[in-house]
Amino acid sequence: MITRFAPSPTGPLHLGHAYSALLAHDMALERGGEFLLRIEDIDKSRARPEWEAQIYDDLKWLGLWWPSPVIRQSDHLDVYRNKLRWLWNHGYAFSCDCSRRDIQDAMSAPQEGMAPATGPDGLIYPGTCRANTNQSGTVNMPEDTAIRLLMDTVARKHGSELTGGNVLSFHETGQGPNGETGLIEFSTQEAIDTIGDIVLARRDMGTSYHLSVVLDDAAQGITHVVRGQDLFEATKIHVILQRVLKLPTPVYHHHSLIRDNAGKRLAKRDDARAISKFREEGATPEDIRAMVGF
Ligand code: GLU
Predict the structure, then answer these.
(1) How far is Cα 188 from Cα 151, in angstroms, rounded to an integer?
(2) How far apart are the C-alpha atoms of 14 and 101, rounded to whole Å?
(3) What is the mean pLDDT of residues 228-232?
(4) Would you say residue 104 has pLDDT above 90?
(5) In terms of residue numbers, what domain contains 158?
(6) What is the mean pLDDT of residues 207-228?
(7) Judgement on whether residues 287 and 153 belong to the same structural domain of the protein
(8) 206 and 85 belong to one structural domain
(9) Same domain, 80 and 205
(10) Residue 73, ligand 1, Cβ within 6 A
(11) What is the pLDDT at residue 135?
C-alpha cells in the first residue's frame, strides 16, 4: 500500500489537514506500506515557500516521516504539458478563452433566478469554444489559452475505446458526503451532463489540479488516495482522465471533514485552527491526534 498527503502550500495546515495526513500515514504504516508527501504548488499566485517550509515543520512535529526527495508539482510542469499536448493531438481537447462571465452569460437559466448548473469543476461549460480542436489533426495547441477536455467526444463517441464501456467506477473504502461507499459507478452520460468539459490547463498555470493529481498519483504508484470528502465528486473526473490516459485507478478513501464549532468546514484562511497555533499554545502531537478523533 502506498498512500500520500498532497497539500497545497497556500496557507497554514489546520486540524483537517492533520487528520488527513495522520490517516494516510497510519493506514500505510499499519499495512507495512509507504506514506509519501507531495507538494501541490501549481498555483504560483498563491503558493509560498514559507508555507511549504511550515508544512514540513508541522508534519515532522506531528511525528510523520516520509521519504525524500519530496515531489513538488512546480518542478514537473513539462510532464503535465506533454500529456496535455497528447490529449490535444488526439482531438480530445479544445482551447477556450471564455471568461467566467462569458460562461455565465452563455448559460441559459431555464427559470428566472435559478442558479446555473455546477459540477465538481465549477460551472458546467456551455460549449461555446468546442469547435477549437485539433480534430483535423493539423492544428497546434495554442499556448496562451485555457485547454478543456472534450467530454462528449471522450465519454460518448469513443466510449468503449477510451473509457472501457459506458459505466465507469472506482472503489471507495471511506465515504462520500452522502454515505457512498464500496463500488461507486457512474455513466458516461452522467459525466457529460453533470461534469462537462473540465479545464485541463488554466491559462495562467499551464495545467490544472485534475490533470496534475492524476499524473502524479500514477507516477508515484499511489495505491490508496486518502483525502477529504470535498473531493469525492472530483474523483469522477480523475477516473475519466485515468481511462483516457491509460493509467491505473487507485482505491479512494474519502474521509469526513473536520468542522469548526459552528459546523463550518475548516478553510486555509481559518488560522484559528492552524496546527502551528495549537503548538504555540502548548498542545502536544497527542493532543492534536485526540482533537481529530484518533
Ligand atoms: N492539493 C489538494 C489540497 O490541498 C489536495 C489534493 C488531493 O488530495 O487530491 O486541497
Answers:
(1) 9
(2) 33
(3) 96
(4) no
(5) 76-255
(6) 98
(7) no
(8) yes
(9) yes
(10) no
(11) 86
